[in-house]
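name: query_chain
kind: protein
chains: 1
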Amino acid sequence: MVKPKKYFGQHFLNNPHIAEKIVQSFLKYPQHFTIEIGAGTGVLTEKLIQCLPKKKFVAIDIDEESINYLRIKFPEHSEQFLLEDFLNSNYIQLLLSNQKTNIIGNFPYNISSQILFKVLEHKNNVEFLIGMFQKEVAERICSQPGNKDYGILSVLIQTFYKTSYLFTVNEGSFNPPPKVKSAVISLENKHFQLPVSEKLFFDVVKTAFQQRRKTLRNSLKKWSSTITLPYLDKRPEQLHFEQFIELTSIIEKNL
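structure:
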């Protein structure tokens, strides 16, 4: 068996009923090439290899012990188990750049936000995602304006994806049990064409939330001091992504 490693942030899913629930949610979406991130001990992987074609599914993990374990446990699928770092792999970069892709996984909590930013980089090809996150992060991603959890990730993800909070998962479904509850969410690509500079839009959103307790008059001072902007008396968590697009559009026209 694979020993969980703290430095990889590993909490292996060991509840087959939760794995089945995740896979059934995943199978509701059209099946493109699928990448499982963080295969671990294969509780989720086992169900995926039963229903996805060999040529359309790979399971990756940064832990060599996990990959070796899976290759021994499922020898007829050994070529589908890859020792890769999702965030830094040239091979994964190539996959995401060249074909429509779905992503699924019990994501390591210490890099879950980074995984989502990588998804945003490849939003033209990442069609659907179903992932296990720390409950607090899942709530943040799906949060609506006016909520204290609403932040940078909420705005950026919701601009390009329809988010759904699917269900909560208790600590006992993992080995070792995490100290927090977890949650499964889904992202469905909206194929939204941003009508402004993406770089500037990201910059406006991130700058606004750097001082989230202050009004936009203060947090967006580098633009608001010279450009007449709407919503300056509001705080960033009060704005919908469409209002951030509106702000970006005005800034862009006046640069």
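note: The mean pLDDT is 96.
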